[in-house]
Amino acid sequence: MLLSIAKLLWAFRFEAEIDAEGKKIIVNDDPVMGYHQGFLYCAKTYGCKPVVRSEEVRETVLREYNNAKREIFSQFSEG
């Protein structure tokens, strides 16, 4: 999990989404009101826009994805 999070932080900046009026959508991080309660306790929908840090990073991410698709994901495809 740590490695996955580190890779996401390496590749992307996470910015707030912008609403129709041009204002940032604020995340409700209140431990009571910011979450759905029920069978699963999870955060309510919020606006988050991942932005690739650079074209070099974009190329690396796409190259790694294509390698994974060819070498790993293909093992699980039907047919």
Radius of gyration: 17 Å
How much helical structure, as a percent, in the residues? Answer: 25-40%
Question: Could you report the average pLDDT, rounded to the nearest whole number?
Answer: 88
CA-CA gap between termini: 31 Å
Largest sheet data: 2 strands, antiparallel
Class from secondary-structure proportions: alpha+beta
| Spatial strand sequence of the major β-sheet | 1-4
Strand content: 15-25%
Stretches where pLDDT is under 50 for at least 5 consecutive residues are: none
Topology, please?
Blueprint: H1 2-11, E1 12-16, E2 35-36, E3 42-43, E4 48-52, H2 55-71
Antiparallel strand pairs: 1-4, 2-3
Quick structural gist:
With 79 residues, the protein is of the alpha+beta class. The protein has helices at 2-11, 55-71, and strands at 12-16, 35-36, 42-43, 48-52.
Describe this structure in words.
- The chain is of the alpha+beta class and 79 residues long.
- The protein has one domain.
- Helix content is 34%, strand content 18%.
- The chain contains two helices and four strands.
- It has helices at residues 2-11, 55-71, and strands at residues 12-16, 35-36, 42-43, 48-52.
- The strands form two sheets. The protein has a two-stranded antiparallel ribbon with strand order 1-4.
- A hairpin with a 5-residue loop joins strand 2 and strand 3.
Name a few traits of the molecule.
2 helices, alpha+beta, two-stranded antiparallel ribbon, 79 residues, extended
